[in-house]
Amino acid sequence: MRLPPRVPLGTFPTPLEPLPRLSRELGIEVLVKRDDLTGLALGGNKVRKLEMLLADAVAGGADAVVTCGSVQSNHCRCTAAAARKLGLECGLVLFDGRHNEENGNLLLDHLFGATVERHPAAAKPRAEALMTELGRRYRRPYRIPFGGSNALGAAAYAWGYQELLEQLGGRRGTVFCVTSSGATHAGLVAGQAILGGPQVVGVSIADRVVDARPRVARLVVETLRLLGEERPYRVTVLGGQQGGGYGIPSKAGLAAIRLLARTEGILLDPVYTAKAMAALIERARGGQVAEPAIFLHSGGVPALFSYAAELL
Ligand SMILES: Cc1ncc(COP(=O)(O)O)c(C=O)c1O
Question: Which residues line ligand 1 (CB under 6 A)?
Fold first, then answer.
């Protein structure tokens, strides 16, 4: 696989670890790929994507990075930190969500000295125009879409899949990941299509399956094209975990947070990884998973602190 260039930002490869106590609880073997431990600024999946996205920005002579997300966006927090590490400015267009207080990721955006512009949630469809507008204050801004989810961001998860495959040493099983803006899932699927190995299951955390699936499929096609490959691929999106929608913790997700904390000392976040783990738990208990179940922990833990009231 011919992967795009990267700029070093995080710590790779991330560990693949057994979860013996959770495995005993669920009656199947569960492994975790620790992309919550990517190292930069409390880590998460976005650091992996940013290694490729910001390599492109630097190669193009950018002096600033401009991106967008919700007020508690992990992607924006990681982008702000990565920009600083590379000596770049960072502009963030943030949309109000469930938690808008100056805590969690937003607190960290400020610490990294990002220029933060706040907008009501209703302004989301104008994200591109708002980023262009904010970018005018820089000489050569590099724009990154919601979640770092374009073909280049997704290619980083084809690399992630390759890394995982090497760690699995020929074992199969099922990979569970979050599907939101879609590039993490799409990149893993593209990696699977090219390299073979365990099937990938994405868990939609906010959207209906009929909306999430075509978004991921489109990104898979674009990613395979970027990687110079033409392969058959399979996009599997699981629904049923969205609860009240984006940013609203679900009952099963909150139970998953407690279970992982108490069995393994591992933290999940209420917006993304808790809902994906809830799907894994539900399927494992229903005997519907090819072993081992491999959970891609995509991070998001800084948001936990904004959700104290819901968690307690
Ligand atoms: C912690 C965490 N997990 C998963 C995701 C989903 O990744 P993607 O946007 O590539 O679908 C995100 C995206 O914001 C995230 O912050």
Answer: 44-45, 74-75, 147, 149, 178-185, 269, 272-273, 298-300
- Evaluate whether residue 8 is within a structural domain: no
Q: How far is the CA of 60 from the centre of ligand 1 (A)?
A: 26
Provide the CATH number for the domain around residue 112. 3.40.50.1100
Residue found under tokens 């299951």: 201
Q: Do 69 and 141 reside in the same domain of the chain?
A: yes
Domain annotation covers residue 107: yes
Residues 159 and 186 in one domain: yes
Active site residue 73: yes
Its pTM stands at 0.98
- Gap between the Cα atoms of 224 and 120, Å rounded: 35
Which candidate in 23, 70, 73, 180 is catalytic?
Answer: 73
What residue owns the CA closest to ligand 1's atom 9?
A: 181
Q: Is residue 3 part of a domain?
A: no
Question: pLDDT tens across 212-271, in order?
Answer: 999 999 999 999 999 999 999 999 999 999 999 999 999 999 999 999 999 999 999 999
